[in-house]
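Homework help thread (please don't just give me the answer)

Our assignment gives two proteins as sequence + structure token strings and asks us to describe the second one. The first is just a warm-up. Here they are:
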Amino acid sequence: MNSQFEPGAPISIATLPNLRDLGGWATTSGRRVRSGLMYRSTDLDRLDATGLADLGRLGLRTVIDFRTEAERKAQPDQIPPGATQIICDVLADARDSAPAQLSRIMADPKHAGDFLGEGKSAALFESGYRAIVALPSALAAYRCFFATLLEEERRPLLFHCTTGKDRTGWAAAVALTLLGVSRENVMRDYMLTNAQLLPALQPVVDRFAAAGGSPELLRPVLGVQSEYLESAFHEADRRFGSMESYLADGLGLDRAAQEHLRQLLTEE
């Protein structure tokens, strides 16, 4: 199976939704993000034999897992042959992370409105996105991600969290921003999750509704909204002054390392 060269095009593996190549996006300097080097997806625990074989054809050398220890134990990844898993736990320092809160919400659908109604879901996620910028464990995790990207023997790599939309979404947004992709196209890649993930989650919505919950409450939880990503960008600017300073001071990527990544991961 070949990498998709149209920016944001889904790679079709039935048991691995929200899988796409970060390549193909144009940069503001007239270059283009190279395809076949960086992939984003959901977790890899549901892969069947066919899906695992299809994923293996991407030639992955590394799988970066942004999930918590509890998430990894509950749904361990299936790693394709030839790839090594690296743990970069974004929420290790979070006392009450969004995944934990959402687990409780899903367990009590009839009272989900108390947690998610009247705009509370947006506030929950915007707070969560600020945390993935500021938490010490988040800074360490994304530092690990970019340090791995710099190592030639680690590419191609795939990175993921649970649904591949929040922790993964920020990693993709930062990577594309570093490489010179416009904010508009960074947001386009981010918002593709709604088309590429939500259909696969319809059984979750159906079970939630059958247990007495309102399906309308779940869309801002299971999908993404532009305000979530914008809150992370705002937090990076507030804490570090700019994205370049976030990369340098927060993630340990000085200007030389940033430029090196641009040369490695973009082409004419």
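The one we have to describe:
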Amino acid sequence: MTSEPQQKFSSTPAGSVLWMTAQKWFSRLSGLLTVVILARLLAPADFGLVAIALSIIPFLTLLSDLGFSTYLVQAQNPTPEHFSTAFWYSCIAGTILSFGLGLLGYPLQMFLEVKDVVPILWGLAPVVLFAALGSVPNAMLRRRMRFDLIARQAMLSGVIGQIVAITLALSGFGVWALVAQTLIAQLAGTVMIWIAARWVPSSAFHFGEFRRMAVFGFNVVAVEFTAMARASAENTIVAATLGL
């Protein structure tokens, strides 16, 4: 008797705000606790190495989505072809950009003169693909105003990643504890978002719809690129401060 009203409230703007706010603060507090623990187990340079990759990954995930998820949320009557076209683009782009992230390690290694950059970037490369695969199901949940599901899955996947990181750090895996944290958290989040969306993509790819979504998406990318550039600059400062 009580579950139905709660579910309706979670789909209202007020309920959505509450869930996303709760998720944001939960992630910040649990992340801070994890950092405090890992700081005692890992070297400062380990955080710097991973910060390099984390400053690049948001740009690649943005390109793998190309603003299509925003289009799907805002479109008045999106068709199944819209969703499948966006999904297959993200799948292909995510695969290519994942390899691009791994290959980027070689010039960065020469520029930064840090030998561990290459294996770390290859280790984190699947994160781009995992994020790309989850973009369309995530857009579906956002369109349905199911921010409660999105928030719960983000919190749970974050905790899973943090548990993995602390466990590996205690076992002496060093920087790979941080790599595993990012990988596992993104993979868990993508799997849970697919389960919640209950959607199976078709094989359709409509080039006309792709062009229309791309025109809209380029504007979204331009705005988000500026915001991410600021965040990336902050990560670069952190990496430099930690000895890179």
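TA reply:
I won't write it for you, but here's a hint about the kind of observation we're looking for: Residues 207-241 form the longest helix (35 residues).
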